[in-house]
Amino acid sequence: MAQLTLEKLNKRYGEAAQVIKGIDLQVNSGEFVVIVGPSGCGKSTLLRMIAGLEDISGGDMYIDGVRVNDDTPSERGIGMVFQSYALYPHMNVYENMAFSLQLAKLPKDEIARRVEEAARILQLEPLLQRRPKDLSGGQRQRVAIGRAIAREPKLFLFDEPLSNLDAALRVQMRMEIAALHRRLKSTIIYVTHDQVEAMTLAQRIVVLNRGNVEQVGTPLELYDHPANEFVAQFIGSPKMNLMPATLVRAGEADSVVRLWSGKDLVVPIATPASAEGTKVKLGIRPEHIEWGSVAQAPNLADVLFVEHMGNETYHYLDSGKLGEPWVVRDSRRSDIAAGETVGYRLPPEHCHLFDESGKAFARRAAGNGASRIPGVDAPPITFAEPARTNALH
């Protein structure tokens, strides 16, 4: 296990192209941290800098308090798992896992001990004499992980290791990687563009955008309290719905926003007096929009498109001239079809507010679920904690 500290870390390619922009980050010993962001945000470059495969243009990096800016990859005590597996096709599984240990001139019995232990942990013992071409994608990925384990590194780095696998194998490998972390209690930094991997694997998530850290926190902290519009729409699938509004009254506990429809909505969000009269955006997660009978709902919308997922249904509502359709998630199967009109309500306790720069205003914690629209005959859908409702008529 190792602690990693980044201080004002920068990466430039020439004078103009700055890819990593002054990142400060501390990864604690034994922690599983996932770096997530869109393509081109700099996450793989940052990981390669940590590994020593890319030079550091500015700032400092420490492993267990020791500055390692100028150390070679082998001197940093790091094991890296690549997206492409990077296995030698002419070597069998044992030879692939042992190769880096042989280069380090370890004794043969020590190499055998490490390879056999890694194979036991990853259930690769029956496959040690096979070559990569005789393995499935999931088995190849386990070999790549085993090769890293055999080095007994201080720090594990994973660079989008599951992107080449099909959906079922990704689920299986996520469980295996999570179990591996619990077993080894190792420090892991994992890069992905897949937010499902980030939400299910991470103890903390680092959201990266254009070389900057947008927010660091636990998966639920980022989901429930996004720091800005980017995080709000990147974390969560489907993404958060955003709607234009005007802040007509600021307050230390509650604020009043005027929606596009001309109606006012009181939200449990603190806003400064200086923000009164400014344009804001109201955000709400798809599962928090309440909807029901047209007669008793405060707002109406046409259904543009319906996605039946089997265990749940996504409805895309016409937002008029506001841009993208809004998405509503119903936790049940639905017989609503495109072209129908539905009623909806925006529960204030589940709303978010973002200022003109995209920064979130402080939001009070939501209660144990919002009430249904009166008159809806379907019972609320409740979960263990907290209770949630998404009624459909």
UniProtKB/TrEMBL annotation:
Entries under PROSITE patterns matching the protein: ABC_TRANSPORTER_1 (PS00211), ABC_TRANSPORTER_2 (PS50893)
Sorted UniProt keywords: ATP-binding, Cell inner membrane, Cell membrane, Membrane, Nucleotide-binding, Transport
Gene Ontology molecular function terms on file: ATP binding
Origin superkingdom: Bacteria
Region feature Disordered, mapped onto this chain: 373-393
Stretches assigned to the ABC transporter domain: 4-235
A Pfam family reported for this protein in Swiss-Prot or TrEMBL: ABC_tran
This protein's record includes keyword Membrane: yes
Xref: SMART domains: AAA
PANTHER family in the cross-refs: MALTODEXTRIN IMPORT ATP-BINDING PROTEIN MSMX, MALTOSE_MALTODEXTRIN IMPORT ATP-BINDING PROTEIN MALK
Protein name listed in UniProt: Sn-glycerol-3-phosphate ABC transporter ATP-binding protein UgpC
